[in-house]
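seq as requested:
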Amino acid sequence: MSERHIHMAGHVVERHIIRGSEANDRDVFEYALLRVVPRIERGECINAGVLVYCRAKGYVGARTHLDEARLRALDPDADMAGVRAALGAVENVCGGSEAAGQAGGDDAGRRFRWLIAPRSTVVQPGPVHTGLTSDPTAETKRLLELLVK
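struct tokens:
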């Protein structure tokens, strides 16, 4: 399927649109990095996890990895237990477990949107990016290896 657009300059541009049901086994997914910002006034951060949401598959997932040595390099007094607890809470919300509280009962999209909402905390979501995947669970692991570890 394609769309034709005529720009104001008179050029014809063709865009190809891929739909999940058309001979394509990949679906659109969204992802955001989880960043640890130990001292907000300095603006320094390390990547500590990734959130992935795939609407077509009803999937929301998180994988985390905290490099304590890197975090201590930014802030020797960082609260490691607090950061680990915050990262664990994100994983609980993604999993929809009872430990996630009320958010655990929401659908995958609402949980993802709740997790990427800006907050003034040490663990913060980064900007949302998109891609195509046939396996959002594997994509979560791949992004963790590529962008966090």
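The first strand starts at residue 2 and ends at 6.
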